[in-house]
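Data deposition worksheet. Section B asks for the primary sequence of the deposited chain exactly as it was used as input, without tags or linkers unless they were present during the calculation. Section C holds the resulting structure in token form. Section D is free text for depositor observations; keep each observation to a single sentence. Incomplete worksheets are returned to the depositor.
Section A, Depositor: J.P.
Section B:
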Amino acid sequence: MMTAAQMRAARALAGIDQRTLAERAGISLPTIQRMEASDGVVRGVVDSLMKVIQALDEIGVELIGENQTSDRGGRGVRLKASAAHNPQG
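Section C:
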């Protein structure tokens, strides 16, 4: 699953705008806009979401899910678990 914030961050990291992501994914700009306006996990047609994930992967962005590690290296960003979810933190 990908969150709307993660999708926006992935685009920013890749240095592309919504229109470019839509073109690379082969979906409409309004679809990208709706996905990024979602609250929390991106809502939309699974096929469209998979196209976005594939396009980001081809650009060189690795999406890291919660509690997953990244073994590939490279630059990136990750949100820390909130204090409510991480009593040590």
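Section D:
The chain has four helices and no strands.
Residues 1-89 form a domain with the 434 Repressor (Amino-terminal Domain) fold (CATH 1.10.260.40).
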